[in-house]
Amino acid sequence: MAKSMDLVEEIYVLTKLLPKEEVFGLSNQLRRAAVSIPSNIAEGNTRSSQKEYARFLSVARASEAEIETQLEICVRIGYFNEEQTSKSLALCIEVGKMLYSMIRKLNNQ
User: Fold this and answer.
1) Which of 11, 51, 57, 99 could form a disulfide bond with 34, CB atoms 3.0-4.6 angstroms apart?
2) Chain centroid to CA 74: how far?
3) What is the SS3 string spanning the chain?
């Protein structure tokens, strides 16, 4: 959960650099996806079954993939360079691996 919160912070820092016309576009999408990750982890953890928890973790993992895609779009259209997104992408990969591992563990029990 801590790494996903770190990712939220990093995304908020990055999105402040986006042009004003992206406030309701990429900025909003990136922030919503980032906040969705720890939110789904927390909500899933309160559910009554491991199957439900795994489902919420899968939603969190999808949000992580969404962030990776949106950051790549930002680089491709010139809003960010690769150096600016490297920390966020590294956190995405780390969070994604952790979520995948947790999902596998829950599904195998």
Assistant:
1) 11
2) 15
3) CHHHHHHHHHHHHHHCCCCHHHCCCHHHHHHHHHHHHHHHHHHHHCCCCHHHHHHHHHHHHHHHHHHHHHHHHHHHCCCCCHHHHHHHHHHHHHHHHHHHHHHHHHHCC
The two three-digit tokens of residue 29, written as one number: 């999408």
Give the Cα separation of 87 and 105 in Å (integer): 27
Domain extents for the chain?
2-107
Q: What is the pLDDT along the chain (109 residues), one digit of tens a residue?
A: 799 999 999 999 999 999 999 988 999 999 999 999 999 999 999 988 999 999 999 999 999 999 999 999 999 999 999 999 999 999 999 999 999 999 999 998 7
Domain 2-107 belongs in CATH node 1.20.1440.60: yes
